[in-house]
Amino acid sequence: MRARARVIIDNDFSGDPDDLFQLAHHVLSTSVEIPFVIGSHLSPGDPWDPSTTQADNAARIARDLLDLIGSDIPVVTGSNVRIPDMATPAPSAASAAIIREALRDDTDTQLFIALGAGMTDLASALLIDPRIAHRITALWIGGPEHPGMSLPFPAPTQIEYNLNIDVPAAQVVFDSAVTLWQVPRDTYRQALVSLAELDARVRPHGKLGQMLAASIDGIRARFEDHGKSFGETYCLGDQPLVLLTALHSTFEADPSSSTYVTIPKPRLTPEGWYEPRENGHPMRVYTRIDTRLMFEDMYFKIAKAAEA
Questions:
Q1: Which CATH class is domain 5-191+236-288?
Q2: Would you place residue 149 in the very low, low, confident or very high pLDDT band (cuts 50, 70, 90)?
Q3: Residue-range domain boundaries for the chain
Q4: Is the pTM of this model over 0.85?
Q5: C-alpha–C-alpha distance, residues 104 and 136, integer Å
């Protein structure tokens, strides 16, 4: 299939394994071309990976998964640290690669950067070369609920996880002219699958299915070791990155089965909340995702890959 879009994948693969499902699903989606994958950092001391080499670890894990799938997509390493402030980049191989891809003049295929964690490397690229702002669409899983658009979050004072990875980087992106599609916390929390589904639709299908299912088993075991109930579901919150870049309608191509509102980009405060800004560049805020299409497509592609 001829690719309809280019998608740079940027995620913290040494953290929550939902990003492994997203990467596998994206690679198995033939309507997108993935020029490279970025392994990015978590918050300092994050329990998922408390090391100082989180981006290096993420890149290694992404490479291992791609090797399992049989893909030779390049993997580049992002910065291991946040940007120090809104005026200072944290240069890395990833930010340089983003700039090169955005400034290519040999293709007019739409370019997305699919961000499942923080935005350090995109923000650094924008600070280094602002020209890329008009040549890329940033799709971000992150940020808190927008007032008046969602149900209340159970822990209303808790800063959103991905935003907390690098608040200044998110501020840079929100202040820039880059086209932004946001999947905030209340929306990505809709991406629930049951453990029964994973047992029936993922685990039986080859080494990839076994590895993905085992990644959730490990978290469940950690819960139980601490005397906590894991429940019957898990949130694969990065999966909308696939839905909103690869699973577009045939005619007037767009992720037409999900819903969004268009608002001016607000300011982000250092504490991780929004301040309205009437003259902000327009952005999409997705309010509902088509979980049926998203997960059924993932299950069938994992099963098909096991037959190859």
A1: alpha beta
A2: confident
A3: 5-191+236-288
A4: yes
A5: 11
